[in-house]
Design brief:
Helix content is about 80%, strand content about 0%. By secondary structure, it is mainly α. Helix 1 (about 5-30) packs across helix 2.
């Protein structure tokens, strides 16, 4: 029987949780809020984000399945770089497809009032915000791990 240590579980959960958090923070970054001339119940971020996350989880599941299949076929070879690149492509694909399908689900009045008049602008804003958040987080992770390894060898 294979025993899995808690640290292995933690290190396996950190990337997917970080990518999910980046999705929410990217949505916050492009959220324009309820416009001042909006009539009716104010627009709420989480009402829209829950809809967006439904698309995100669906596409994430599809791309994660694809990545796991690739991992299973490549694990006998030393293909860490290829799997990393494939993971980045799958993450990017999830983000782009989620943006497209979410934006198309909104009504014309919603996209106009929310400041997202066209799909290209919305998707670009969201993907850029997402990429900046991921790069920032990856940089923090890199320096944190670098500090751990240098303090462990001293």
């Amino acid at each position: 029987m294979v025993e899995i240590e808690a640290s292995e579980v933690k290190s396996a959960l950190v990337p997917p949780l970080f990518i999910a958090a980046a999705e929410v923070f990217a949505s916050l970054a492009v959220w324009h809020g309820t416009p001042s001339d909006w009539v009716g119940e104010p627009l709420h971020f989480w009402a829209f984000e829950v809809l967006r996350l439904q698309y995100w989880f669906g596409f994430c599941l599809v791309f994660a399945t694809f990545w796991v299949m690739a991992w299973m076929s490549l694990r006998r070879r030393s293909a860490t770089l290829a799997l990393g690149i494939l993971g980045a492509v799958c993450s990017f694909g999830t983000e782009v497809l989620t943006s497209i399908y979410f934006w198309k689900k909104l009504s014309l009045s919603q996209v106009n009032y929310l400041g997202w008049p066209d799909l290209r602008r919305y998707a670009l804003e969201h993907v850029i915000s997402w990429a900046v958040i991921l790069l920032f987080g990856a940089t923090l992770w890199y320096f944190r791990n670098r500090r751990k390894t240098t303090s462990g060898t001293s």
